[in-house]
């Protein structure tokens, strides 16, 4: 059990001493300064001390962060309001008020808790004077001597404590407003990040869709190309087959005619008239018939070898493809391109 020594006497700690320990902040080691905040681990802190500790480890408090309890090291996830979003412990604040009232009422002269060390600023003009009033005209704190004899003697002044409370409240409200504004900015940043991800995803889908459509166009063109090439090849084979058949027939006729010509020439070379006349009549008839047949042979029509009718007009398609863009394609443009092609 803890004991305290006074001179040569030893006495146990009083209930007030135990209460003082319970009302001490684990950060500043002094009595809690209101407002007091309570963590989920049930430990209490001065909000100002917690804010200083949090800001030193989390400079961007508007974006939230993790606060570690200095007593038990329990980690608390803070929202966008930071330490200001922690719950106040009104019970502890009320106990502090009652304790202070009890201390003042008892008139105790014992020093129970050491006060927070604070060095009051002194006036620069009057080095022995503490700054104890506030010049509302010049908006600066000053001392009483400056008001009586110094540069603020014609200015309006107010008690330092009242101005302190007023401006402290204004600063607290400004902090709350700034925290709320930072929260809105964080929300906007989150929206921008979500929008960026959505743009990237949508662009990827659009690229994939465009590639698929062009692949489909390529497939359609390749299929149509194959069909048209087959048509050309089919007619080519038919004409070549017809020409080869005629050539074969002409070759056979030529061979027959050549044999007949050789026979007729040999008949002319025979010296006997009787022998010649016996063969000449038939030869003359065969020669004339062969000559007539050669004149009446089937021949390909003029231009039979041409393939100009397989010329493909693609200018209107090229025009449409050149104007192809995102959006709905108007059928009128395709019709206009066809009309221009026909006029040309």
UniProtKB/TrEMBL annotation:
Xref: SUPFAM superfamilies: B-box zinc-binding domain, RING/U-box
Task: List, in alphabetical order, the GO biological process terms annotated in this UniProt record.
Answer: cell differentiation; regulation of microtubule cytoskeleton organization
Domain RING-type: start-end pairs: 25-73
Organism the protein comes from: Cottoperca gobio (Frogmouth)
Enzyme Commission no: 2.3.2.27
Enzyme class, UniProt record, top EC level: transferase
What parts of the sequence cross the membrane? none
Q: What does this protein do?
A: May bind and stabilize microtubules during myotubes formation.
According to UniProt, the name of this protein is Tripartite motif-containing protein 54
Q: Report the GO molecular function annotations.
A: ubiquitin protein ligase activity; zinc ion binding
Q: Which residues form the B box-type domain?
A: 118-160
Reactions accelerated catalytically: S-ubiquitinyl-[E2 ubiquitin-conjugating enzyme]-L-cysteine + [acceptor protein]-L-lysine = [E2 ubiquitin-conjugating enzyme]-L-cysteine + N(6)-ubiquitinyl-[acceptor protein]-L-lysine
């Amino acid at each position: 059990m803890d004991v305290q020594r006074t001179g040569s006497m030893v006495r146990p700690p009083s209930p007030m001493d135990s209460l003082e320990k319970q009302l001490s902040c684990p950060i500043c080691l002094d009595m809690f300064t209101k407002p007091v905040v309570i963590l989920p681990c049930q430990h209490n802190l001065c909000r100002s001390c917690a804010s200083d500790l949090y800001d030193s480890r989390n400079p961007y408090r508007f974006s939230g962060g993790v606060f570690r309890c200095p007593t038990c090291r329990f980690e608390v996830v803070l929202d966008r309001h930071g330490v200001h979003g922690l719950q106040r412990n009104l019970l502890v604040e009320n106990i502090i008020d009652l304790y202070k009232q009890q201390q003042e009422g008892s008139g105790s002269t014992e020093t129970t808790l050491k006060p927070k060390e604070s060095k009051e600023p002194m006036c620069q003009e009057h080095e022995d004077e503490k700054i104890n009033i506030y010049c509302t005209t010049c908006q600066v704190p000053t001392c009483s001597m400056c008001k009586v004899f110094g540069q603020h003697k014609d200015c309006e002044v107010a008690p330092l404590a009242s101005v302190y409370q007023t401006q402290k409240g204004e600063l607290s409200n400004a902090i709350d407003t700034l925290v709320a504004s930072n929260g809105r900015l964080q929300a906007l940043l989150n929206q921008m990040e979500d929008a960026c991800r959505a743009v990237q995803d949508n662009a990827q889908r659009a690229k994939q869709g465009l590639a698929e459509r062009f692949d489909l166009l390529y497939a359609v063109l390749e299929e149509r190309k194959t069909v048209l090439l087959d048509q050309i090849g089919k007619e080519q084979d038919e004409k070549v087959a017809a020409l080869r058949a005629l050539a074969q027939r002409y070759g056979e006729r030529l061979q027959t005619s050549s044999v007949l010509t050789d026979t007729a020439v040999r008949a002319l070379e025979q010296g006997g008239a009787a022998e010649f006349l016996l063969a000449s009549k038939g030869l003359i008839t065969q020669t004339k018939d062969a000559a007539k047949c050669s004149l009446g042979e089937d021949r390909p029509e003029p231009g039979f070898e041409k393939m100009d009718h397989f010329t493909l007009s693609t200018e209107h398609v090229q025009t449409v493809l050149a104007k192809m863009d995102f959006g709905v394609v108007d059928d009128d443009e395709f019709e206009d391109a066809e009309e221009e092609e026909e006029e040309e």
